[in-house]
Design goal:
- The protein is mostly helical.
- Helix content is about 80%, strand content about 0%.
- It has helices spanning about 10-60, 65-95.
- The chain is elongated and about 75 Å long.
Length: about 100
């Protein structure tokens, strides 16, 4: 069995390089989104945990079990993560879509 040797056209080579470039840019965009989302989740956890735990300790009408407290805190952290990560990925993709391929 012989292997077929097919000459690549310049258009095919450019499209493969362009695909690699697009994949690298997508990876970078998603990494920026993950980092920004993690920062927002950490901030939301602290911002939600302090008043939730304080109100459960001090106010008699706000008494709740630890599971409810954890649910409130984790819901806020999860929402913050996904909202900020999504907005960051979209903003980065929008910013990169206006760049010409030769400027990267």
């Amino acid at each position: 069995m012989s292997k077929k040797v097919v000459a690549e056209s310049p258009l095919q080579r450019n499209s493969l390089a362009s695909l690699d470039q697009k994949l690298a840019m997508a990876k970078r965009c998603s990494h920026e989104g993950v980092v920004a989302g993690a920062k927002a989740a950490a901030l939301a956890t602290i911002a939600t945990a302090i008043p939730t735990i304080a109100s459960a300790r001090m106010l008699p009408w706000a008494r709740m079990n630890p599971t409810a407290q954890a649910l409130i805190i984790s819901t806020a952290a999860g929402a913050a993560y996904f909202i900020v990560a999504d907005k960051t990925v979209l903003a980065t993709a929008r910013k990169n879509s206006f760049k010409s391929p030769s400027s990267n």
